[in-house]
Amino acid sequence: MFNSLSLLVCIITIISVASECPCPDESLCRPIQTGSRHEKVAFMVSNNNWRQYDYNQLTTIVICTQDFDPQLVCLAHSRQVRLVWLANYDVKQLGNITVRNEWIRLQINKVKNSFTDGINFDMEDEIIDGSITAFQYTQLVQELTRLIHIEVPGSMVSVDVAWSAPCIDGRCYDYQSLANVSDFLFVMAYDLRSQIFDLNDCIASANSPITRVAAGLNNYTQLFQISPSKLVLGVPWYCYDYKCLSLDVNQTCTIEHVPFRGSPCSDAAGVQHDYQYCRQLLRVNATTSRMIDNRTGGIFFNYINQNDGQTHQIWMDDPETLVIKYDLANNRQLLGIGMWNVDTLDYSSNSTKEARQDTIDMWNAMERFHFSNRIN
Question: 19 falls in which pLDDT band (50, 70, 90)?
Answer without folding.
Answer: confident
